[in-house]
Structures are given as structure tokens and as C-alpha cells.
Amino acid sequence: MRIGQLNRDFDISDIQKDKFHHHVIFWLVYFTMNLFRWGYYYDDYWYSLKSNLVEFPIYIVLVYFNLYVLLKRYVPGKIYTYISILFVCILAASLLKIILIYEFVTTEIFKESTLRLEGLFNLKYVIAVFIGELYVVGVTMAIKLTIDWVRSEKKTRELEQRNLKTELSMLRAKMQPHFFFNTLNNLYSLTLDKSDQAPETVLKLSELMSYVVYEGKNSRVILIKEIEHIQNYLNLERLRYDDRLNVTFDINGEIAGKEIPPLILITFVENAFKHGSSDTLGKISIVILLKVKDGRVFFEVTNDFRPKAAMKNPKKGVGIENTRRRLDLLYGDAYSLDTQQKDGKFSVKLSIPTL
After folding, report:
1. Which residue(s) pair with 69 in the sheet?
2. Which CB contacts under 8 angstroms, 24+ apart, belong to 73-80?
3. Going edge to edge, which strands form the sheet with 284-293?
4. What are all long-range contacts of 4-9, with beta carbons under 8 Å and residues at least 24 apart?
């Protein structure tokens, strides 16, 4: 391994990312524990202090070389090369520790053992020191990998949340033009007929657009505001259809203080008008039910359904599909959305928890 490559592999910012003071605290705690551990074992704290002062610089160099050079360069692609180099490094560190302990601390070989060994590099002594070095490397590597995994999971969750928010924003952006186009179509019909109701329609459309623009960007709105928005929309449709429209909007339960995502319910009302009415038809019948019970909002819309009329619109269901995706992102499995077509009627039933 060349020196230039080593410099490129080791980046001090890697340690800074792990917060330098955390490293200092770890080594101080570990040094203190080791000091009292062996000081108590030998009943000689001065010996323990000297031996730890010799050992810990070796530990630190070996640990950081492993964590920020070897792991970074060889794992996971070259695992066998990593193991081989790490083995050589630990063995070299073990031999260096044996020499330094002998030169600067004690000439008593393998002091922690009950055996009295001849020779500085006795195999049993080398193996014991090697295992001690391996223990330090293993513990620090386990801590490092655990921290990296936790950070990776946190980043993944943050990215998922960011993506969800981005997708929700895009879906809301898609729904707003969809709503405007539907309402402008209504206004266009009135202007073609030169209806006196056109000015009032423009005013009500302005109120609806204000809600969509200012409230629609929020993550939640008061349920009462969403209900008022639906009622404004119904009033706009009454201007268009006059006495041809027979719409019922029943509200039950305690709605005060409850919150839901904006522009969720209106989509189903729009859909009922878009696919349940036509200028060639007679009476238009739409039934809307809203009930709040046990911390949930139950919303149902039923309209006349004529397949031939519905087939004329190639964009059928865009609003509902966008809303379904929003519900998936917002609630996961905590909501239910069912549609049913039976006996010339089409109904949508939604159940969501209040926020």
C-alpha cells in the first residue's frame, strides 16, 4: 500500500463526521477502565498506568487504520485481502507491544499469566497479546459499524420522508389544475348561454380558488373548512344546473376540532358531477353523506351512473387515482376506499382517521 494511496484513503473529516469529542470520551473511558482493571488485578496501579500508556497509542493507531483505511478500501469488495492485511497489522502491533512493554515497563514476560515463560516471543505469549489486540479491534469495529448502520437507516428514513413530501406536493399540484378545469368548464357553459349567473359564478370560483391555493398547500385543514369548501362547490353547481340538480349533503357527528388533509373529499364530489351528469340528461341526483365517529371520518358519495356518458370522457378517474395515491402516502393501511357500481348508481365510500 503506497503512502500516497494511504493519504487518500485516510480522511480526517471521516473522524470529524463521527464527532471528535466522542472519540476522546471513548478512549478516556476505555483507558480508565483498563487502568483500574489491571491495577486491581495486580494490586499495582503504577504498573497498570505504565503498561496502558505504552499500549494505548498502539491500540489507537491500529483501530483507526482499520476503521478509516482498511474497511473503507477493502470492504466489502476485497474481504479476503482485508482479513489478510488486518491479520498482519494485528500481529505486527502485538510484537511491537511485547517489545515496548519489555523495554519500558517490565522484564517479567507474560506477567498476567500464572506460567513463567522463557523467551520474549514465546508462542503462548504472542497469541495472548494477539487476542488482546484483536479484542480491541473487534469492539471498536462493532461500535463503528453499528453507528454507521444507525446513520444509514436515519438517512434512508429522511430520504423516504422527503420523497413522500415531494410526491404529495406533486399530487396536490396535479389535483388543483384538475379542479380548476372542471369548474372553468362550468363557467364556460354559462357564458355560452349568456346566463345572468356568470358574474356570481366568477365570484364563487374566486372563493374556491382561494381555498385551493392557500389551504391546499397545507398538510392538514380543519374539517369544517373542507365542508365549507364542498358546500361552496355545490352552490356553484346549483347555479349551473338550477332545478335540474337534486343534491343532498348530510352531516352527522361532532366535526368541531377535527382535521384532515385538504382537498381529499372534494375529489369524490367533483367526480360525481363529472361522470354523473350531462347536458343531455334530465334530473341529476347526488347524495353525499359525512359522518364523524370514533376518531374517523366516513364519507360517501352516490351518483347516477350511465356507462355510455362516462365513456365519452377519456380522463375518467384521474382525480380519484391521485387521491388514492395521496391516501396511500398519508395513511398507509389506516384508511379504506371502496367503489361500487350497481343498479345505475355509482358510489364511493371513504374512511380515514382524523388528524
Report:
1. none
2. 73/9
3. 245-253, 284-293, 296-304, 345-353, 336-342
4. 6/69, 9/68, 9/69, 9/72, 9/73
Give kind and range of the element (H or E) at residue 198: helix 198-214
pTM for the model stands at 0.53
> Is the torsion defined by CA of 151, 156, 157, 158 positive or negative?
positive
Cell for 52? 496502558
CB 305 within 8 A of CB 275: yes
- Taking the C-alpha atoms of residue 113 and residue 23, their distance in angstroms, rounded to an integer, is 31
Query: Which H or E run includes 32?
Result: helix 20-42
Partners of residue 302 on adjacent β-strands:
287, 347
Cell 499495582 sits on residue: 44
User: What whole-number distance in Å separates Cα of residue 168 and Cα of residue 104?
Assistant: 67
How distant, in Å, are the alpha carbons of 47, 110, 131 from that of 98? 15, 9, 13
Nearest to 42 by CA among 105, 119, 122: 105
Between CA 118 and CA 149 the distance in angstroms is: 46
Residue 282 grid cell: 334530465
pLDDT by 10-residue block (mean), the chain, 355 residues? 52 59 85 83 81 88 91 86 92 90 75 58 83 90 88 75 59 55 68 72 78 79 92 83 87 92 87 68 86 95 73 55 81 90 89 90
> SS3 for 9?
helix
